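User: Okay, second chain of the day. Same drill as before: sequence in, structure tokens out.
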Amino acid sequence: MSIKTEQFNLFKIPHSRMKQLVTFCNQNLDTTDFANSDALILLLTNLGTVFHEFKSHEEIENEHIMIKLKKKLTKMAIYNPAVCNCHKDDEFSPLINLVEAGYMYLNKTKSISEKISFGVRLRKALSAFFKKFIPHMKEEEDVFQPLLCEHFTEEELHEMKNIVIKLHMQQRKRENIAKRRKCEPKMKTFVSENQKPNYISQLPDEILMKIFSLLSTRDKLKSAQVCRKWNELIYDPSNWSYLDFNKWKSKNKSYLKGNENAQFKEMDFIDESDEDDFDSSTQIDLNDVKTLQYWIRHLLPKIGVYVQKLNLSNCSSLNNNLARRILQLCPNLIELNIGYNSIGDNSFRG
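Assistant: Same drill. Structure tokens below.
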């Protein structure tokens, strides 16, 4: 007897929940910043709960629907390959294992690129799974539900439906509780590994200032990017009373000679009016050029007013225009060393 009443559809309510979870997963993937560890942990926690619910859904269907349908068809000597092969492959365990690996992965790496790479891997795995999972649910409703209605009585279907829905609700509650308990120690482990007490930042400002005063200029600038407190302490006037150009020089030097000077003169931080400051015999150190460019554009506008002593000796690429611009950015200069340079009196005019 064929039963077509919608009230005996064993798949509709569980599948409605599964489709909600698919949408939830896609929304989480779209909004998660994979470079943010906290956001990635929250995503893994949510996905872990969802994947366990997916797996429980399949186990309930197998035990209380598909096995009964297979037995019924076997008794009637009916072979249906779709029924026999249903849920043959385990599609959920690889996803659960990927989430478990994600927690360990986060504990081992702090690299943003590696976190994003894991996010791409996770997204691909979910995309491949959903391409199979959604059509599979449609197949169950279009193929298996008519078979159930054909070979089971209304009473049997009603009882099966009640059991399936009840087990889904019970399992959902158990999975949520178990997943929270399971994720909490992993999240605590991640926090303990990546948020250890920062003892150096707890030092008094006076001690930190002394430490920063011992750093090279480049190390100071790098340290200033660590946090707001370090930035404020490093850019304290006392750290910039003395500036030595020679400490910025790189060991690797490149030179341009003769006609190649034209390339240097065209750089936008040199005025065309000063082209006569260079002649064909001038040796231009590109490392000096880059350092002067950085000083004028970035460093001195920020700390120039604090500089009282300045050493520009042995700077072969220093010309009148550059020297004048540097002096303008250091209005409180008391002592200046310009030994072994080719600059003239024009540097000190205007």
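Residues 124 and 159 are 39 Å apart (CA to CA).

User: Thanks, on to the next one.
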